[in-house]
Amino acid sequence: MRNVAKRSFAALILAGILLLGLLSFLVLYFVKGAAWAVFPGSPHVYTGGNLDSGVITDRSGVVLLDSTDGRSYAQDPALRKATLHLLGDREGYIAAPLLGKYADELVGYSPISGTYSLSGQNSTAKLTISAEAQAAALEQLAGRSGSVGVYNYKTGEILCAASSPTYDPDNVPDIAGDTTGAYDGVYVNRFFNASFVPGSIFKLVTAAAALENLPNLEERIFQCDGSFNVEGDDVNCNNVHGTVDLQTALAKSCNVVFGELALELGPDTLTQYAEKLGVTERFSVDGFKTQAGFFDLTDAPTVDIAWAGIGQYTDLINPCGYLRLMGVIAGGGEAAEPYLMEQVDAKKLTASYHASPRRTGRLLEKSTCQTLTAMMRNNVVSTYGTASFPDLAVCAKSGTAEVGGGLLPHATFAGFIADADYPLAFIVVVENAGSGSEVCASIAGTVLQHCVDVLDDEQFG
Hints:
Elements: H1 2-38, E1 46-47, E2 50-51, E3 55-57, E4 63-66, E5 72-73, H2 77-87, H3 97-101, H4 103-107, E6 124-127, H5 131-141, E7 146-152, E8 158-164, H6 203-213, E9 222-224, E10 227-230, E11 233-236, E12 242-244, H7 246-251, H8 255-276, E13 284-285, E14 288-289, H9 302-310, H10 319-330, E15 341-345, E16 353-354, H11 366-384, E17 394-401, E18 410-417, E19 424-430, H12 436-460
Parallel strand pairs: 3-6
Antiparallel strand pairs: 1-2, 3-4, 4-5, 6-15, 7-8, 7-19, 9-12, 10-11, 13-14, 15-16, 17-18, 18-19
Helix pairs in contact: 2-5, 5-12, 6-8, 8-9
């Protein structure tokens, strides 16, 4: 009897262990089942590194990618090129972290049916991107390296995130054999994953810091004689501007004034504002990790503190990050965080996804942003001209970013529309192209008009 009791007890212990193991597996299955089924490279849902499920459309329903039977891109070659850096290519040379981020929903995994569709229907994802604006941006870049970004600073929707150079995934060129340089850096998403010397668009950061830390700044008068000397080194301006106030200094992009302001603020305050305004931050946008900008005045010579406040020295910005800063100024000190994925209709037992916009929190005082907005509007009216922006209250700052090496400067241009009906911020970067206002204003105007037309169509049908 004792042996039977011992054996029964051992059997109960073994059964308990088996039951505990089964329960643990069931818990893990429901918690991690989706990750097991749709992990990157899973042969069940991936082919050649590409997700094999779902239809991706733009905000208006234009099909950008159909992965339900192979990988079919948009019918329009221009649109295929314009969205390549968002959706990836067939070979996996250009990744699509956006699709990986929402793989669960696109595959439609559920604990009951796994990756099998009981309804026979495929998931559909709608991006915030406008196909029309994407194609227009790429056309305006005209084969030059650079990026164009536009987003709604109230909602966070990215309407345009173009990167060039690019190529048609249905007609892949001989990139390795190219000797013209037309495809240099083609695998880099310049909107999310690149950083650039900002040039004078960075003067907005210096102006914001000065407005919040230097008393009576708007009442001060400055003198520009074309340069000023810092411990034996000259900080040169683009002209002799004479007597100017802060608004005129920004409109004329006076290096003397903003170099002097940078020295007056000092490296600690400049660094504080570069960091709190997100210039140096790396953040996530629906699977894309933005490239961090750079601002470091550690042990910088005094003259280079001045140049850093002008947007030179070692300063770097990421287009997406700086686009968000334009939204912050336009939004009175805070803005919506940018995002790309509007919704995924899973059409299966799994839950569908709908975007939940997030806010940056307050980064600048409202009065600071009001002053910057007025000055940036004055830039357009008095310096750049309104011809590129008919009927749009565009506020902007241009930059001509010196990159050295005997190369032409990067042309940069950033700003927003100060209009509650069209709350759009933008940035344009064209590498080695020269003057920001001359090169980029027309690009920004064309793409913004497409975005405005899209918003009008959505509002008024």
